[in-house]
Write a structure and sequence with these properties.
The complex is a heterodimer of chains A (348) and B (235). Chain A starts with a helix and ends in an 8-residue tail after the last helix. Chain A is mainly α. The mean pLDDT of chain A is 83. Chain A contains 13 helices and no strands. In chain A, helix 6 runs parallel beside helix 10, helix 10 packs antiparallel against helix 11 and helix 11 packs antiparallel against helix 12. Chain B is mainly alpha-helical and 235 residues long. In chain B, strands 1-2 form a two-stranded antiparallel sheet. A two-stranded antiparallel sheet of chain B has the order 3-4. Classes of the chains: A mainly alpha (348), B mainly alpha (235).
């Protein structure tokens, strides 16, 4: 069949297909349902439901036409028609493929489901990595804690003397606010600072997993060293009440979130080191798809931790006993959440 | 023979092979530089106006904005602006999955969080090395997320054949030759007159050797008429 005859016979099909493509390619900023609702306000109910029916009929037609156009493209290619016709059909098939096989992003209900069910289950599933990351964070802390208790000058191996003085002034019981220097003495400002600082550390702990996990381990160990050293030194200086009541409030969320980010990073590194019977890039891809979910959960936890740290932990106005009670309660809450909430990923 | 074009081929479930063109590190680098400048602009704008509008909240707002822009500015645009940050839009490239579908939230987050590693040791050296060692110019973040940065495809316009009349093909014209003549006719509008004549000169001996046809006084028109014949347009 000559090219002109082919075009004449079939062009109605791909012209209609192109019409539908142009329609579907207009992306709106609002989610589909909401956009339609806004577009049909003022009309009565029956018209709105009619629109739904219209849309689904068009989508069915679109899918059928897509298959026809794929067929025409193959025919045109095999018969070696001119590159312009084949190119046009190629273009239609590519655009159609991109619409038909697009991958949806998660919705709000999926987010809630994630928080309540999927995230704790995922952490439980990767319990080995969890304990490994915990060890990397807390073991150095414990070791340095005892090292500083035995030999107080050991603190200067971990921090410079300027930092030590800075730290002491942060947790002096006589302060009105504990924690970082409050230039503006604004709780919201500190909230912003903790967001930027802590979440950045968490993300870096995850991303550095790509360096075969060594970067992640470094981040965890360094943070653990600082934690143990600070606690021990302030205990020796007599500021222990301030630092411990400060840490216990948000520590449950922040430290656990660091551990989980470390978990995610270690997962990445491990997938490169031991890809099983897959290619390394494929193993990495599969690992990062699930590791990023861990990071997302850790992100939420760190936002909560920043909130608590800025607005609650740092005020000196509250009695220590209140802080310990609430802080302890939060640890128990998190423990219960990770042990009980949701289903473990390989159950369900 | 290995082709020069670095098209990336996607096999669809309908057994069609799609070809998309990955973007190299130069256009990506320029896009990044543009985005970086935009971010700097926004920071300075917010910083200077912040104290006016936000009063005591300005420090916090600044810090949170800085955090969001650093990590999530690309994510926002990649997910809701069809894979293109303003910088990428200017260079006409965008981010897609490896099967050419638009990138979703999870993949975008992965590739942007892993910028940290691509940035090591300085200025994206690891990322550049990775993209140059990869057939599809993927940096480390792209490999982990399964994404590609591609050049946007053009809209195809099928040109029409404007010449009138039909001419028979010379003997022994293969399919390849026919396609060449057809391509010549379809691109006639884009070629200059001198160039068309120059190309048509190649076939003058063949045209003169044709038995029943008229003389090759206007080889360009003759070729156009042959194209009409190939396509099947009537006289």
């Amino acid at each position: 069949m000559k090219q002109a005859a082919f075009i004449e016979q079939n062009q109605l099909v791909w012209q209609r297909f192109e019409e539908l493509l142009n329609k579907l390619e207009q992306r709106t900023w609002l989610p589909g349902r909401l956009a339609r609702r806004i577009a049909t306000t003022g009309n009565n109910k029956s018209e709105e439901s009619l629109k739904d029916v219209e849309v689904s009929a068009e989508l069915t037609e679109f899918a059928q036409l897509y298959r026809s156009v794929c067929q025409y493209q193959s025919m045109a290619k095999t018969r070696q028609y001119s590159s312009h016709l084949v190119g046009k059909l190629d273009d239609l098939v590519l655009r159609g493929h991109q619409i038909l096989y697009q991958q949806k992003s998660a919705s709000l209900s999926a987010l809630i489901k994630f928080i309540l069910i999927e995230f704790p289950g995922l952490v439980r599933k990767e319990y080995k990595l969890f304990w490994l990351a915990t060890a990397f964070l807390y073991l150095p802390a414990v070791l340095v804690f005892f090292a500083v208790m035995i030999n107080p000058d050991f603190i200067y191996t971990v921090m410079s003397s300027g930092d030590v003085q800075n730290m002491e002034s942060m947790y002096n019981p006589a302060n009105s606010h504990f924690g970082e220097e409050r230039g503006s003495s604004s709780d919201f400002g500190m909230f912003g600072f903790y967001i930027m600082n802590n979440i950045g550390v968490g993300f870096r702990a995850f991303a550095l997993g790509l360096t075969l996990g060594l970067g992640t381990i470094a981040v965890l160990v360094l943070n653990g060293l600082m934690l143990g050293a600070v606690l021990a030194h302030l205990l020796l200086v007599g500021y222990f009440l301030t630092i411990s009541s400060f840490v216990i409030g948000h520590g449950s969320f922040e430290l656990t979130a660091f551990v989980i980010s470390g978990m995610a990073g270690l997962k990445l590194g491990y997938s490169i080191l031991n890809p099983g019977n897959m290619r390394r890039s494929r193993a990495l891809r599969m690992a990062s798809a699930s590791a990023v979910k861990l990071v997302f959960g850790a992100f939420i936890m760190l936002v909560i931790a920043a909130f608590i740290e800025a607005f609650w932990s740092s005020t000196a106005a509250l009695a220590y006993s209140i802080k310990y009670t609430v802080g302890g309660g939060l640890w128990l809450l998190l423990g219960w959440y990770f042990l009980k909430s949701g289903v473990t990923a390989d159950e369900s | 023979m290995k082709k020069l074009d670095n098209y990336y081929c996607v096999q669809t479930p309908e057994a069609v092979e799609l070809r998309i063109q990955p973007a190299g590190f130069w256009s990506r680098g320029l896009a990044f530089a543009t985005d970086f400048s935009i971010r700097i602009l926004v920071y300075s704008l917010i910083a200077s106006l912040g104290s006016v509008f936000f009063a005591s909240f300005s420090v916090g707002v600044n810090l949170i904005l800085y955090f969001l822009m650093e990590w999530f500015y690309p994510v926002f645009f990649e997910v809701w602006n069809n894979g293109a940050t303003p910088g990428k839009r200017m260079l006409n490239i965008r981010v897609v999955h490896e099967d050419s579908t638009p990138v979703n939230f999870s993949a975008s987050v992965i590739r942007n969080l892993l910028r940290v590693v691509d940035f090591l040791p300085i200025f994206y050296v690891f990322g550049i090395i990775s993209s140059l060692s990869n057939r599809s110019f993927q940096r480390l973040g792209d490999i982990a997320a399964g994404t590609l940065v591609i050049n946007n495809q053009f809209k195809y316009v099928t040109p029409s054949l404007t010449a009138k009349g039909v001419r028979a093909l010379p003997d022994g014209f293969t399919l390849e030759d026919q396609n060449a003549v057809l391509a010549f006719a379809e691109r006639g509008a884009q070629l200059s007159e001198e160039r068309s004549a120059e190309l048509a000169q190649i076939l003058v001996p063949t045209l003169q050797a044709q038995e029943s046809a008229t003389s090759a006084s206007n080889p360009v028109a003759s070729l156009h008429q042959m194209a009409n014949g190939i396509v099947g347009l009537g006289p």
